[in-house]
Amino acid sequence: WKNGLILITHDRAFMDSVTTHTLGIHRRKIKKVEGTTQKLYDQILQEEELHEKTRANDEKKRKEAEQFINRFRVQATRATAVQSRIKALAKRQTFTKLGAINNLDFAFPAAPFPGKWMLTADDLAFGYASAMHPLIQGLGFSVGKRDRFAVVGKNGKGKTTLLNLLARELSPTDGNVTHHANLRIASFGQTNIDRLDREKTVLDEIIAAHPDATQASARAIAGLMMFEGDHALKKVNVLSGGERSRVLLGKLLISPANLLLLDEPSNHLDMESVDALLEAVDAFDGAVIIVTHSEMILHAVATRLIVFDNGAVSVFEGTYRDFLERVGWQDEHAIVPRASGNATGKHAKNMTKKEIRRMRAEIISDRSKILGALQQKITTREETITHLEATVEEDTAALVDASAGGASDSIRKLSKSIHDGKQRVDELFTELETLTEEHDTASKAFDEKLKGFQE
Fold first, then answer.
1. b/e per residue, 277-298, with b = 16+ CB within 10 A?
2. Interior/surface letters 174-208, b for 16+ CB within 10 angstroms, e for the rest
3. I need a labelling partner for 353 at 20 to 30 A (CA). Which of 27, 71, 158, 409 fits?
4. Three-state SS at 290
């Protein structure tokens, strides 16, 4: 595409692989940066930190001025100075404290599962009478209690149909789906969203999902889904697509399940909500089968795949990256050899634009995972160092008191604690230095990889 392009999507990896600038709506204002979504988030974080520091400094100076005015208001010799401070205070810009931003923060309740296999599909087949070829034929697999399946393929190939077959909302034309007696399914999908009663409120819909649900429990779940207070009394017919998705997620939280069937769950959700969803899926103590086109979600979740490709459906044992490297898509317009991780711009010239975008998305996804993990380790070390240094300082003060009182046992214990604490701090600083170098080296390496895949 040679002209301008404006892209609206919640797939961060895809967005970052094809765009040059990022626009975001934050606190009801539009922000624009040249670069990726991460650059936008970093800029927002820096601006808010600066705002808070400025606000705190302004509040301090304002209190000092008010104290001066109150102290010398009645003294005639200070009248001019007092009036000057009053005028300056009136002209001073006021910095309001930034309010907290509501984001999804929830967990899927898990029902216990005592067996090994939750669900088994045997020689499964399905097709519509009007179609020349069946959508699904000869498909067989079993779902274990911690499996993470992703169902992938182009639209219209049968992915949603497969979920409906597994949930027994459709009957197969051949083969069968066997459920364990203790299987408890929770389903999320566009068809489920369409089944929401437009005349019911958010609270009504959540309560309707479980016969024993109480107003209190439904209110709590509505709050988790960002429908606090009177917002829980909104009718479905006035809700946006994202809000309806959150209502459906809320319905899944009212009763425990051990298998989640998720059909394009990231549709209509903003990026922060998608992150919360991924965290909930990762923490879920059960199995997950998810249909998604988001490469970020595929790389983050899937350990097994059900692939609709080249007119057939099959099971692939491995991650999405394993699939791309070992098999790849067969029904793309052009198939080219996959470049290695050390590919250069020269390699990229021999690749299709679709392949280049895919490689960029993979690199960006890897960068986010690896740098994020390293940053978390760095943050943990820094927090531990701060805690240990405070403890050493407290122990040192206590040692002075113990020495003055001649408490030999306390002196011995505190001396050892201080020695061990300082030694551990030194070790952590060494680890911190190594991790920081690893982070910088990895960051530069990913930047170099991305340069090799410019369209």
1. bbebbeebebbbbbbbbbbbbb
2. ebebeebeebbbbbbbbebbeebeeebbbbbbbbe
3. 158
4. strand
Do 246 and 274 form a contact (C-beta atoms < 8 A)? no
- Side-chain-facing half-sphere of 434: CA atoms under 13 Å: 8
Mean pLDDT of 175-182: 94
Q: Is 276 helix (H, G, I), strand (E, B) or coil?
A: helix
Per the listing, tokens 């692989």 go with: 17
Count CB neighbours of 362 within 10 A: 22
Please give the single-letter amino acid code of residue 203.
L
pLDDT in tens, 262-275: 998 887 777 777 88
- The Cα 248–Cα 227 span in angstroms is 12
pTM for the predicted model, two decimal places = 0.56
Question: What Rg, from alpha-carbon coordinates, does the chain have?
Answer: 29
Q: Are strands 117-126 and 174-179 parallel, antiparallel or unpaired?
A: antiparallel
For the ranges 1-5, 309-313, 356-360, the lowest mean pLDDT is seen at: 1-5
pLDDT of residue 11: 60
d(CA 41, CA 4): 23
**Residue that the structure tokens 């197969």 belong to:** 172
Q: Per DSSP, what are the bridge partners of residue 306?
A: 151, 315
pLDDT digits (tens, 9 = 90+) for 276-331: 888 888 889 999 999 998 888 888 889 999 999 988 999 999 999 888 888 888 76
